[in-house]
Amino acid sequence: MKRTHHCGDIRKTEVGQEVIVCGWVSRRRDHGGLIFVDLRDRSGYVQVVYDEAAMNEGTFHKAESLRSEFVIGVRGKVRARSEETVNPKMETGDIEIVCTELRILNKAKTPPFYIQDGIDVDEKVRLKYRYLDLRRPEMQKNIMLRHRVAKVMRDYFDRNGFLEIETPMLCKSTPEGARDFLVPSRVNPGQFYALPQSPQIFKQILQVAGFEKYFQIVRCFRDEDLRADRQPEFTQLDIEMSFISQEDILTMMEGMIKELFQKSIGVDVPTPFERMDWDTAMDKYGSDKPDLRFDMPLMDISEYVKGSEFKVFNAVIESGGMVKCIKVDGYADIPRRRLDDLVKFVQIYGAKGLAWIQYSEEGIKSPFKKFYSDETFAKIAEATGAKTGDLLLVVADKRLVVDTALGQLRLEMGKERGLIDPDALRFLWVVDFPMYEWSDEEKRWKAMHHPFTAPRDEDIEYLLSDPGRVKANAYDMVLNGVEIGGGSLRIYNAELQEKVFESLGLTPEQAHQKFGFMMDAFQYGTPPHGGLAFGLDRLVMIMAKCDSIRDVIAFPKNQSARDVMSEAPSEVDEKQLRELSIRVSAPKKKDKNENKDN
RNA sequence: GGCCCGGUAGUUCAGUCGGUUUAGAAUGCCGCCCUGUCACGGCGGAGAUCAUGGGUUCAAGUCCCAUCCGGGUCGCCA
After folding, report:
1. A364-388, pLDDT tens digit by residue?
2. Any atom of strand B under 7 A from CB of A31?
3. Is residue A107's beta carbon less than 7 angstroms from any atom in nucleic acid strand B?
4. Which residues numbered 483-502 in chain A sit less than 7 A from strand B, measured from CB?
5. Reported pTM
6. Under 8 Å CB-to-CB from A389, ≥6 apart: which residues?
7. Rounded to whole angstroms, how far apart are CA atoms A460 and A246?
8. H or E segment and range at residue A529
9. DSSP structure class, residue A554
10. Cα–Cα distance, A388 to A224 (Å, whole number)
11. Would you tell me the crossing angle of helices A508-521 and A200-208 to the nearest 10 degrees?
């Protein structure tokens, strides 16, 4: 019984033909002498009819035994449905297959949840039975889209002269950056590989090796805590090019994105993308990845509120901080309760509090009303464009806290007030990133991007004397407030690279121990080069309109970094550990699943 | 590591102030009936370690403590 058609592909053109289809029983409607089965394969659904009066008894009897998710093969004739029985909700709703032969290829246990779109089931159940979850059409679509995305990317880069080159999964552990996943080496007792956080160094060395244009769709690993958009292993589209300017890279990537959206979801993305420097992004949107699907910029009102009796604002301004606000149109009647919630909300991001001005019909309401004149409130209204009915939410603190808290509050208000068009795609390049950021925890400057990023030429003199003012030739691609890619022009001069290591607090010995092979390579004729990497999971997540990258990864980990289907990670045999010269100090874990299910 | 939310039939939920409940509903499942359904319909039935452990109480799904599990988030993520 060899399949001739896919379920979802059959149309009126096949009417009269004998077809053989295979798939899973999605729904069975048993009317006694007449049974309908919606048969599903990866292409979609088709209705199969079993008519007691018109078929042999054994076959009909078999049809009566069908249950959800049985795997069957059906031979039958395609028939046009009568006008009253056409189902416009189904792609194949014009036709049905009248079964003449039924083969039950496999029975199935009753699944723990419905195999259909839009289910509301605890994610742990979905992940445990991932093979059933993935059987749902919307998940199938996501995985198919992901395939399509990778395919378009490969075609684009191939056509533009790029080579896909694989790099090692077993690498040297490097300082800086995320925590490494370590892999013990059996043949080198006591020594460890690290799984790559990205192929960064290898792709640069491939430039030294003269490949000029490299790309790779590659798995990366970072042992950090998980989020809706962060998995310990994730996929990057990794790119590096020689003899190019920043402009060349941005243009090449815009072309790739344009083609990608056109060919995989049929959306036209206008190019070139908007550009914004990092300082502006932080100042205006309180984020290095602004969501431009709505406006609501942060506005500085320090000059209007300084020098008053209101100690909170004064103290902040005098110590070099600032008072900024966002304007929420038509929300002057925000419930007091909600304001209390928002105070807590900004505190998450380090703000000590939140103030507000309600320009309501009954007049101005504000916790600091008594400290300021009506004129001051009028001036603030003028400066911010606030009209009667509008709400200003105000945060006072040092710059980074104000920007972060208000930036997050802006997003919260954007969602709450329905200002975000769910179909909008707003691309943006954020450029001119700072080279360093200060780590309070480690009391030192850390590379904001990574230590191979080239500082702007005019800032090189400040690398050691004033790292905070150095800007880098680094850029991020942002889509709808999500960082989907980032990269930089690289340092290609060994001395400059050493200087940057020094600025990061690495001694020449440490630098040499960790990156010596790279520094060596750089002495043998390194071309100017640069590149970037995209987060493939995040990109597909947005294209598929999902809220979590778990929905576009076939077998993701849960928030505790566990695969609940295969139950990884797990303890291993003493023998394995002995071979690796490893002794485990962690207490034995009880089997987490011993008191659960079956 | 911190904060927030959650855990009750296979699934999704309800369960008030601790007591009239034998812990309900929907859906799924099982059986019988049903020839034009497409979320088919009708009748009947089975199905619960109320996450786990301890405590308070005459009495705990409900209150308290601890633990486990899940999700979101801050820190973290070059």
Report:
1. 999 999 999 999 999 999 999 999 9
2. yes
3. no
4. none
5. 0.94
6. A329, A330, A332, A333, A359, A360, A361
7. 18
8. strand A529-535
9. S
10. 47
11. 50
